[in-house]
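## Example pair
The file below holds two records. Each record gives the amino-acid sequence first, followed by its structure token line.
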Amino acid sequence: MKDKTTCPECKKNNTIKWCKRKTHNRGLIQRYKCKDCNKFFTLDDGFFRMRNSPNKITLCLDLFFRGVSTRKVQEHLQAFYPHNSSNVSVYNWIVKYSNIINSYTSQLKVNSGSEIQADEVEFRRRKHHNKKGIEHNWFIDSIDLETRYMVSSNYVKSRSNQELKNFFNSIKDKSNGLTTITTDGFLAYKKVVKKTFGYDLRLRKYKINHKVVTASAGQGFNHKIERMHNSIRQLTQNFRGFHGSLDSAKSIMKGYEVYYNFIRKHQSLNCCPYELATELKLTSNNKWTELIELAEKEGI
């Protein structure tokens, strides 16, 4: 039977289903044959050559981002899976698949409302195992007030002008209908926001309205993004200072962005933010697996 599956060798669609390969942990996997180049191959669904099943791997991701530490996840595996994985394997899965999914979701256009709030959370990260001390880092993020979608985020070493510029450029590229950026009174925001969004010479005004809310001056709080930060602080209590490199910490926080936007139902919305903010339709109960497969299908 001819199949429309593309051959990874010659990139043609003249393929047929050949047989199924039996694996120890992943069950039966379909093999294909290309009738043009005679290549036998297996489709990469995002879990190619992994020694554990997609359900087991995504279960670990889901437990971790719901606040369960990697060692507690390991204990869970010992109770319910005969072939256990170490907490190091769990950590590696979290880093790997957070990057894979975020590479796909970060390309989605956001149907944002008129106002986006931006702010940052300070973290104390333990330096690499061969270095001593604590390093102060920042998680800079933004939320669309209408859909509660986390439009952009980045875990950075410092709040430099270049890091802030990259952050606001991401908001600019992904959002539609944006007219107002709301931040706190951090002085660097004022210059970077205006420079990023530009000046309209014809109307003689900046293209974005930068609204500054300074709590210390009695102007109140940016309540919606602060509420999200409370959830982040509660979750990251189990992270114990982000062991390891800055890149690993970045990956974990990108995974949290995926969890917040696509996995966790927002209580006030009674749905996930992506359902209101994007055109993406996820139909599976296991959204982790579906997102990984979509990322692989897009060649990410």
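Second record, same layout:
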Amino acid sequence: MQDFLELALRILNGMITIGFFPFLFQIYRKTSRRFYLLWSLGFLLYGLNIIIRGIFLFTDFGMPTMGSLFAFIFLISGFILLLTGVGDLVNRARTALIFSMILPLLVIIIFFATGPENLGRAISLSPYLFISTGLLVIRRRYAATLDLLIVGWLILLLVNIGQPLGLISSSFVEMMAVFGKVIIFYGMASPKFSFLVDDLKRYLISGTPEVYNNENHLGLTLINSGEVDRNTEIQWIIKKIGENSPKAVRTVVVTIYDTISPRDLRAAGLDDDFFLVRVLAGGTGHLRTFEEQIMTLSDDPNELELLFSDIMGFSNDKKIRCEIILYSLSILIHTHGWKRIYTFLLSKMSQLKVSNVAIYAFYYPKTHSEDADIAKFEKLADRVIAI
């Protein structure tokens, strides 16, 4: 009777876990947020692990050894996806994926170091510990409201600690696991969580400020770069991003026709400290600002206007400083004519004055045939500097 109750509770636990899959996958289809895809697949594999363990290990059907192997593969794969999803919340999916690979490595080390007797305990504890710790770090560092998810995962961690020590029965473990997952589901079903994923994924890339930002100058700055080479310009941009990152200033590099590539910036050790908008002929023509770290935009000036407005609107809404580096203004002028680009910048000045945004635009006076035309841009700017 006890075995039947435990089996029934385990199947219920597995079905509830698998039930996360359609719910999260539907959200992924609506939002295209990678986090929801990773967690939907992670919970699917996690739930299949539970079902398989129930069928193969608590009944006489099939081969227990084969069932254990499949259960192990689904469990490890599921938790790797879940851990990667935790990292993806703060745009650290690659780091989390690499870290999650510790799981199978840890299992192998424990197996050869201590034998199979401690293998089950390592498998049952380490994923819950990693996920709980990751969520706690995000909550502390980003002041994110993840309480329900943290409580749910901590419940799963505690029951998996108590069972090997003989403090709680297997049936109670399954009941508490169901309870913990209901809490997790409730936390993810809350509309606040959708907004949270949006905010963390889009904006909380460089983290919280580590250095006090005492630079008050905002507005439009033109950078006269006519006397220096391209490498000096890129080094200036790299230095600017490096200065902004500890201050939690969001740096958006707008590169016209790929005059700067992601490789140029990442070669300096910059990883997730900037956004790069590639303005290309025949680009997407539609940009969901801050959706990804590297974005592509049509070279239509109207699309640039929308981009700048989105950044200024975000800055006002979130009270977070942003800096736009335009590389370069001269290319835009040569492509679309000085009148169109001047009108574009002029239309943004009133919004720029009341925002927490600074624009730095590179230009090359000697490449323009009419000095009077480029002089109009210099008068429009708050300051003109040289590097």
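Notes on the second record: Residues 259 and 327 are 7 Å apart (CA to CA). Residues 2-202 form a domain with the Rhopdopsin 7-helix transmembrane proteins fold (CATH 1.20.1070).
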